[in-house]
Structure formats: structure tokens, C-alpha cells
């Protein structure tokens, strides 16, 4: 009777299977790591943008509503770089005894080349105060629309011109962004439209 020989060591097939399993695991881990990095980077950018917006609002509260005007910083206004572009809008609230709606917008381009926008707003009353006054007790009734019907046009609308779209009045901003007013990519009420038109004021056609 022939003797049996014990099998020792690892076969080539077992090695290949082990390498394949290890490769799949490493690929999954690399994908997870990439997603985690992007999430952390995105959260970091939004935290910085929120801190900028809150700083502008706190400064506005300190100054009081009477001195607030709309404006923007002098960084690339198309948000095409990683630099944070900040612009703000101060709107009078009809019948509110001096209360203004103050909104701050911060936009930038993230590491993936995607444009991002963060918006925050508050209501600020007359007088100098370091405390937020919150929203008025009652929301003022919408006023009559005063703008002309909005259409995409070239040349663009001029700074300060008011247009009406979807029961809102929008005012073309004063500054470098006024050149975007009228361009299809900056239509009022859209993500990038806020750069050229602000948030708009609800009105009655």
C-alpha cells in the first residue's frame, strides 16, 4: 500500500485568493478615507464661513440698524477660488419702526471645484446694542410690488434697479456684482442669483 504524504505549506491558489481579498479590503478602505477627508474638509469650510457670517452680524448689531447698508468685500466675486467671498444685504422692514432685515452670504469654491454658499440672517432694531433683537413680534404684510418684470437681458440691469419675479422685489446690488444682474446664471431667487440680487422682498403683484 502506498504511503500518504502530508501536504505542507500554502498553495499558489490560496495565496492568490488572499491577495485578492486583501486588495478589495484596501480599495474599500481608500474609498472610505477619501470620503472622510472630503467630509472633514467640507465641514471645516462651512465652519469658517459660518464664523465669518456671525462676525458680520455681531458687528451689525453693535452698530445698530440706522447705520446698516448693503455691501461686499473685495475678493473674487464669482466665488471661483477657495477664498471666502462675503456680501451682505440690509433691507428696511415696512411698518417695523426702524427694524432692518440683515442677511450675510459667504461663498467659495471647495477642493472639488464646487461652488458653495452659506447664508444667515437676522432682524436688527434701531440703536446700538450687542444683543440680537430677534424677529419682530408680527410679520409685516407684503407691500405692493414696485419692480419691473424680470427678464434675462444684455446689457445687464444697473445697480439699484428693482425687478419683480415670483411675487418678490429684487434690487440689483451696488458694487462689482451688479454686472451679473440680468445674466441667466444669476437669476433672482437662485443660489448664485443672491450674489447679484440679494434675498428679495416678498410683495403683492
Describe the structure.
The protein is an alpha+beta fold. It has two domains: 12-138, no CATH class; 141-205, Seminal Fluid Protein  PDC-109 (Domain B). The chain contains two helices and nine strands, in the order H-E-E-E-E-E-E-E-E-H-E. The strands form two sheets. It has a five-stranded mixed beta sheet, with no helix packed on it. The protein is elongated and about 85 Å long. Keywords: Membrane, Transmembrane, Transmembrane helix.
**Distance from first to last alpha carbon:** 104 Å
Strand order of the largest sheet: 5-9-8-7-6
Order of helix and strand elements from N to C terminus: HEEEEEEEEHE
CA gyration radius, whole angstroms: 28 Å
Measured as a percent range, the helix fraction is: 25-40%
Largest sheet: 5 strands, mixed
Given as residue ranges, the uncertain stretches (5+ residues, pLDDT < 50) are 127-137
InterPro entries: N_methyl_site
Keywords: Membrane, Transmembrane, Transmembrane helix
Protein name: Prepilin-type N-terminal cleavage/methylation domain-containing protein
Transmembrane segments: 12-32
Question: What would you say about this model in short?
Answer:
This protein is an alpha+beta fold. It has 2 domains: 12-138, no CATH class; 141-205, Seminal Fluid Protein  PDC-109 (Domain B), CATH 2.10.10.
Amino acid at each position: 500500500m502506498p504511503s500518504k504524504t502530508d501536504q505542507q505549506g500554502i498553495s499558489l491558489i490560496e495565496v492568490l485568493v488572499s491577495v485578492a481579498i486583501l486588495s478589495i479590503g484596501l480599495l474599500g478602505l481608500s474609498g472610505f478615507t477619501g470620503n472622510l477627508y472630503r467630509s472633514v474638509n467640507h465641514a471645516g469650510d462651512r465652519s469658517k464661513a459660518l464664523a465669518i457670517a456671525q462676525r458680520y452680524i455681531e458687528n451689525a448689531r453693535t452698530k445698530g440698524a440706522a447705520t446698516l447698508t448693503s455691501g461686499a468685500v473685495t475678493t473674487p466675486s464669482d466665488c471661483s477660488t477657495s477664498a471666502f467671498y462675503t456680501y451682505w444685504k440690509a433691507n428696511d422692514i415696512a411698518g417695523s419702526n426702524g427694524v432692518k432685515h440683515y442677511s450675510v452670504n459667504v461663498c467659495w469654491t471647495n477642493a472639488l471645484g464646487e461652488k458653495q454658499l452659506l447664508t444667515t440672517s437676522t432682524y436688527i432694531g434701531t440703536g446700538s446694542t450687542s444683543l440680537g433683537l430677534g424677529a419682530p413680534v408680527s410679520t409685516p404684510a407684503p407691500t405692493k410690488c414696485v419692480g419691473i418684470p424680470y427678464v434675462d437681458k444684455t446689457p445687464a440691469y444697473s445697480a439699484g434697479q428693482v425687478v419683480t419675479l415670483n411675487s418678490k422685489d429684487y434690487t440689483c446690488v451696488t458694487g462689482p456684482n451688479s454686472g451679473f444682474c440680468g445674466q441667466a446664471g444669476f437669476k433672482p431667487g437662485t443660489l448664485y442669483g443672491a450674489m447679484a440680487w440679494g434675498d428679495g422682498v416678498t410683495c403683492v403683484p
